[in-house]
Amino acid sequence: MSQFIAELDYTQPWAQISCVFGESLMPPSTFDAFVKHTNIRKQIGLSELAIVIKDTDIHLTIEAQLSQAYTQCEVTHRFYATIEDAIDAIHPHYKCDVEELHQFFQNNNFASQPDS
Q1: Which strands make up the sheet holding 46-54, listed edge to edge?
Q2: 22 is in which domain, residue-wise?
Q3: Beta-bridge partner residues of 54
Q4: Which domain of life is it from (predicted)?
Q5: Does residue 2 lie in a domain region?
Q6: Residue 8 in domain
């Protein structure tokens, strides 16, 4: 991810689409590091996050923890049911290659159920 962030134009706001798979809860030390790195991304232009949570029995718990971190960093974030929904929400507001996004998430889909 750092390679892609390094290629961004930091003079322009940018968005991130995240897909979280499985039981992705963070212990306190990891949560603190996550907040620190989110604040760094915010300082270099991160303005919005679109998040998809897949393959978990604790969806609401993961959503609550991520919301706590992003709210603490004052980063706009929203949760979506599918990657398609997240891309559709971000695409009209930020310059992105939609085909490349689709290809990335197809190539990096660790979920047991394909995204519909």
Answers
A1: 14-21, 46-54, 76-80
A2: 14-107
A3: 21
A4: Bacteria
A5: no
A6: no
